[in-house]
Amino acid sequence: MNFQEVLNKSRPLVGPHCKACLICDGRACCNQIPGPGSKGSGRVATRNYEGWQDVFVKMDTIVPKGKIDTTLTLFGKTFKYPIFAGPVGAVAMHYSDLYSDQTFYKTLLAGAKKAGICAFTGDGMDPAIMIDACQEIKNQDGLGVPTIKPWPKEIVLEKLELVKNSKAFMVAMDIDAAGLPFLKSFTPPAGRKSVQELKEIIDASPVPFMLKGIMSEEGAIKALEAGAKAIVVSNHGGRVLDGTPSSASVLEKIAKVVDGRMKIFVDGGLRSGVDIFKALAMGADVVLVARPFVNAVYGAGEEGVEVLVETLGQELKDTMEMCGASDLASIDKTMITR
Would you say 271 is a known binding-site residue? Predict the structure, then answer.
């Protein structure tokens, strides 16, 4: 099975918002909220995709022939590719009730593990989402990254206990989820956090803590001050604020100011192994791909996840082969141009 066949199977199953496009670039779903689209004008999701297309790779095959190594070691774990499945929530509402969040995460985590990578899980108003996600991560020997919404501190600390019991090797908070409607109306107040508030949360974390939703150099510095071990350069797929730049356009500046002091993940419109190579060359350590994994799960379950991972992984290997890179450490900014 190839990924086109997975998409063909997914298309009639994912509901009215997602069109299961061959290239998920935000054009067809546009600004359908709730759903997989973008907020306001709908341009941010499209801008994310286009941002990577404005970067070009430089071919160089006058280099010694050798094996291409795509393996990544992160916080004591080794993965086949620097590609993780990003967090997606409320799949029954946004796509279709073929899957609940619980069954979606069970399938995604298992498929990701078989493919040699790792998946993020999400969070929501229903406490069972996080409870079940953490249990599934435990079932996969801790190979998963639970993502906590920016709830009040007391709730976050309760969820960190679930993370501890899950044996997860890392935990994330999507701090940019402050723009989601259900968090804005939450009582007690949820959403934005000060550096000090984040530091208190991060100090209580049993595992390395990641902040997702960093889109500026200033934000990256604050994440460092709070004690984060990793960040995700992300605008939440355009779902929380219109008028933001693409993640591709800010990645290099953020990587420069971080200067190796935190691991850098990036998401937003990365749809091929060539895109992934560009992101690595621009300073990312790991790339997150989210929406295509929804189609992978709906189209062919665990097998669909494996097909997508191998498709992206082989494209990354091909790009490394043609651009003179032998391993992830050898990919740098000299291999791209604009």
Answer: yes
Question: Domain residue spans in the chain?
Answer: 3-337
**CB contact at 8 A, 14 and 37:** no
Which homologous superfamily is 3-337 in? Aldolase class I (3.20.20.70)
CA 329 to chain centre: 21
Centre a 10 Å sphere on the Cβ of residue 157 and count the other Cβ atoms it contains.
14
Q: Known catalytic residue: 94?
A: no
Pick the catalytic residue: 113, 236, 278, 291?
A: 236
Instruction: Give the rounded distance of the alpha carbon of 142 from its chain centre.
Output: 18
267 marked ligand binding residue: yes
Q: What is the pLDDT along the chain (338 residues), one digit of tens a residue?
A: 999 999 999 999 998 889 999 899 998 888 775 567 788 888 999 999 999 999 999 999 999 999 999 999 999 999 999 999 999 988 998 999 999 999 999 999 999 999 999 999 999 889 999 999 999 999 999 999 999 999 999 999 999 999 999 999 999 999 999 988 888 888 888 999 999 999 999 999 999 999 999 999 999 999 999 999 999 999 999 989 999 999 999 999 999 999 999 999 999 999 999 999 999 999 999 999 999 999 999 999 999 999 999 999 999 999 999 999 999 999 999 999 99
